[in-house]
Amino acid sequence: MFKCDKVTVHFTSETEPMVVEQVAEIAKSYSPGSYSPAVQIIDVPLDPAMGGSLLDLTLNPADPSEIDYLVLQEEKEERIVRVRDLFDE
Q1: CA–CA separation, 50 vs 11, rounded Å?
Q2: What is the mean pLDDT of each successive set of 10 residues along the chain, which is 89 residues long?
Q3: How many Cβ atoms are within 10 Å of 57's Cβ, its own excluded?
Q4: What is the DSSP secondary-structure string of 23-59?
Q5: For an engineered disulfide with 44, which of 24, 25, 26, 48 has Cβ 3.0 to 4.6 Å away?
């Protein structure tokens, strides 16, 4: 598992990149209804001073077949990864 604070998902189509900050986890998931595979980027605002709690999570699904690559950022360090690199199988 990769540790990161921010994820930018770049798609193979002309779709604008999806940026998720305050990333708690990147997980394998399934799309509701179709049950097709999905990459779930979980955003949790963990700063209680800003009114955040673990119950305020946001699920950000992306179809792995539409992802070109992801940029994982931890502080100032960035790493480019492919979906196949995210999960050990």
Answers
A1: 32
A2: 84 94 87 82 71 70 92 93 80
A3: 16
A4: EEEEEEEE-TTT--EEEEEEE----GGGT--TT--EE
A5: 24
